[in-house]
Structure formats: structure tokens, C-alpha cells
Amino acid sequence: MNKTITTGMLIIAFFISAVTLKAQKVISLPEAINIAMQNNPAIKAGENQIKVAEAKYMQAHSTFLPQASLLTKYFVANNMPEMYPLAGVSVPVLNHGVPTGDNIIMHPMAPFMNRTRDVATFDLNLVYPLYAGKKRINAVNSTKKLKEVYSKNLLETKAELRLKVKTAYYNILFVSDVINVYQQVLNQLNDHLRMAEAAYKEGVRSEFDVLDFKSKIEEFKSRIVEVEGKKVVAETALKNLLALPDNDSIAVKGSLNDYPGNRKITLQSLADINRSNYKVQSLQNLKEVLGLKEKIEAAGNLPTLFTFGNYHIYHGKDFPPFDKTWRNGFAVGIGLKINLFDGNMTKGKKQEIQADIDRVQNFQQGLKLQLRYQYNKSLENIQSLEAQKKAALAHLAVAQKAYQIAEVGYKNGVITNIELNDSQLNVTKVKLSLLNIQKNLLLEYANLAYLSGN
């Protein structure tokens, strides 16, 4: 019975493990960026903005097409005779107050005759502007520029998201590599503990050595638990950027050393970055949109020339002969509309737009100053980190050699466990320093790529 229960529990544990492994997503950095581009709500919002600009273009372009409308009515009308007391009365025709000798029979007042009847009308109207002071072409061009603004904003959003994904990804790699370093130290401490226990049994070492190594082992175990907690936090941040469900488990590929960074980006000049930066391009396009909008407002007081046509069918109209005969006709013509005075409304709108252009210009200048600072800062940080990395590699070689000598010395009883621990700790510190330098280098390269629009 016990064997059956144990076997069942093992099978259940196996399936749970299999499901867990299946649910875990092991992704590379390019895969993480692609998932973020597909799932992140900010990207979808940017794509919707482009669709808005396309819809605005369609609206603006529609003014180049004839505007056709159809109006039809059918109704039954009735007027009581009491509404028109003179209906049917013969009255004299006057000329400047003098009777002419002619009489007419009074009919009910328009629009209704003095009996119940139905009325049907059908009007087809066609209007086409011939000249509008270039308002139409400027409106179309402004929507094209607006689409460019939204496109650059979307590219900026993608670049910013790419930088955030890289940052989260590198942080996961960093804490993973730190855990590996601590695990290596833990393995070494276990070896030291076995040596100390063997030496203690032989009477070569004291019990203090055994207790000291056990204490160090527990210390590094607690450090691993602490760093694993930080890894969970970093993985959660990455899942949020990728818009993955909470119950999804992800893991990243490789280590920090697998990502050397794009050193070609440092060869770009500041002028190149100012031209290729998406924010700078977006602000430039926005200025052009506002410039076209200013032209549209300035054309508000220019005359508008248009042509029109009308075709109508009706029956039961409210003037003689008041019959039910269907009639039709058409009308064509040309019209001119001139706004004489709008209370300085156009002038005020132009001033408002010009103020917006100046504001965007100031933003653009401030952004270029910010780019210059961030670009030079990243270059200086990269140079400093490269120098630190070179020095740390030299220190690591020395520290590892010192640790090898200390390990041999401890085995032969020449040095104490404290000296061995110090040499081991020195190696650990240098390794952790190298990992931190490599992570910061990758983040600086990622920042330069973001600034340059690459």
C-alpha cells in the first residue's frame, strides 16, 4: 500500500514538474524585444494614433471631391378654412392705392392650401469648391505631416521600450551571474569544510576552522536567497514590459559576457544623433504641421469660389395650380463667398499657432541640449568603465593566483582559515565588480542606441 502511494505521488510530482517546465519561457534578448513590440499596450496605442492620422487624411482629401446630398420628403398636410377668413373672397387689385378695376379670388396663405393633400419632394444637390485659398491642399499636407509625427512618436515609444527591455534583461543576467558566483564560492567553502573536518580529525586543525567554514556557508546561502529574490523582481519587471500573464514563468538565455555591446554606436557624432533621434524628428514634423495649420487659418478671410447643381422632383406643391402632377427641373450656377469681418478671430488663431510653433522650437532646442549632455556622459562613462574593466581583469588574475597559493598553503597548514577566506573573498569581490562593470557598459551602449534612434 505504501509503495502504491509513493509511486502515485512520484507520478503526480513528475506531471507537475513537466507542466511547470512547459509553462516556462526561455527567451533571448531579441525574442524579448519582439514580444514586447507585439504585446505592449503603449505600442498598440501608438499604432492607433497613426490610424487616426490616416482617418484625418481621408477627411481632408474628401474636400477635393464633389459634395452630393439627397433630400426627400413625403407628408400629408391639412389647413382649416377658419385659418384664412378671406379665402374665396373677391378683392380689388390696387395700383399705388388706386383700384385698377380688376378683382382676384383670395387663396389660403402659403405654404398650405385649403384642403387635405399629400406632398412629395426630391432634391439632389451637388457642390464643388473651385478655389479655397489653398486651404484644402494645406489641410491634406498637414494630415500627412501629422502621420509622420505619430510615426516618429511610435518609433520613439519602441526605442524607449527597447531600452527598458534591455535594462530589465541585463539586470536578470546580472543577478543570475551573481548567483553563479555565490554558488561557486559555496562549492569552494564546502570543499574547505571537508578539508577542515579531515584536518580536525587528524588533530591538525582546531574545531574553530570547522565552525568558521560552516558559518561562511550559511552566510553565502542567505546571500543566494537574497539575490534570488532580486531576480524574481527583475523577472516580474520584464514580464510587465512583455505584457505576459502573471502565472507565466520566464527565463533568460546566456550571461552578461554573451552581450558585448554595440561599440559602433560610439563612433556616431553628436550631429548624427541630433538628426536621427526620434524625438527631434517628431518635434520638427510637429512644427511643420503647425506651419500648415497657420496657412489654413490665414486663408480663412480669402474668397471661396464654388459651383453647384440641383435636380428636383415634386408634386402637391403649395402654389397654383395645386394639382397632383409630378414636376421636375434643375438649376446650375456658380457662387462666391467672402468673409468680410470675423471679429479678429483669424488673427487670434494665427497668433495662437505661432505661439505653439515657438514653444515647440524651444522644446527642440532644450532636447538637443539634453541629448548633448546624455551623449557626452555616456561616452565618458564607457571610457571609464572600459578602463575599470581592464584593471579589474588584471586584479582578478592576481586574486585568483593568490587564492590558489592560499588554498595550497592551507592544505599544508602554512596559513590560517582566515587568510584563506580573505583570499577567496577578494576573488569574489573582483568577480562581482567585473559583472557590475559589464552590466553598466551594456546599459550605456543601450542608452546610446536609444539616443541615436538605432
- Approximately what portion of the residues adopt beta-strand conformation? 15-25%
Count the strands?
8
The named CATH superfamily? Outer membrane efflux proteins (OEP)
Radius of gyration: 42 Å
Please work out how many helical segments DSSP would assign: 9
| CATH top-level class | Mainly Alpha
- The strand order across the widest sheet is 2-5-7-8
Query: How many strands, what sense, and barrel or not for the largest sheet?
Result: 4 strands, antiparallel
Q: Quote the distance from N terminus to C terminus.
A: 65 Å
CATH architecture: Up-down Bundle
- Global mean pLDDT: 84
Structure class? alpha+beta
* Parts with pLDDT < 50 across at least 5 consecutive residues: 14-22
Total number of distinct structural domains: 1
| Residue share in helix | 55-70%
List keywords for this structure.
single chain, alpha+beta, Outer membrane efflux proteins (OEP), four-stranded antiparallel beta sheet, two-stranded parallel sheet
